[in-house]
């Protein structure tokens, strides 16, 4: 069985959930601790996005329990969302605003202070070049947009981060840079859940990989030793579903 931190930041226990009369998740158990990167893989329709929706409070469990840093995202949605950052596949920003203005405005909307020095530190820590801080984001690449979103997460100091297909459409260099950034967030104790089809990238960065199949977690594999994961074996076992 997988190792489990004493009090997980992101936690789903025996969750049954879905949409109207269609059950998608059948007894999901997922626990992610502070400073841990968890990659959830699975075929189209396996329930990965539904799992993110659980933590965001958009889908309520029919059975079981969901917690974000101890908070029920359905019962206390505002409290739960204050504790997490969500980075969708395509990061939505205010196109006519600069990177710095976006972070300041989004912090303001989140009801948090927008200290300029803190914003600059966060954007720099997210790997955005200083020359881009004052540029409108309209011309930004996907990788640059993600850096702005990660800068926002850093400035908000959230304990949990949810990522939907973060490396799809990124070139190998941008993927490596993105994975490095996730390592920085892990170092700050953030609990990170990423859903992805990208086994190689997941194997590069994740501490654990879970394979979701038709709403059930088939297996969890933890990184071990210098090779971390046996990617060939994982691909052989799950390639048809996950890739
Ligand atoms: P993908 O890799 O394609 O994004 P996924 O693993 O993220 O897939 P989900 O998006 O969680 O899968 O979808 C799981 C199932 O739930 C699918 O059968 C999908 O059609 C269904 N589904 C998703 N959203 C809704 C919704 N809002 N209403 C009804 N059914 C939905």
Give a description of the structure.
A six-stranded mixed β-sheet has the order 5-6-7-3-8-9, sandwiched between helices. 44% of the residues are buried. The protein has helices at residues 48-56, 77-82, 99-109, 116-125, 142-156, 172-187, 199-205, 231-242; strands at residues 10-19, 22-32, 37-42, 63-68, 84-87, 160-164, 191-196, 208-213, 216-222. Helix 3 crosses helix 5 (142-156), helix 4 crosses helix 5 and helix 5 packs parallel to helix 6 (172-187). With 243 residues, it is an alpha/beta fold. Helices cover 35% and strands 25% of the residues. The chain starts with 9 loop residues before the first strand and ends with a helix. The radius of gyration is 18 Å and the shape is globular. The mean pLDDT is 90.
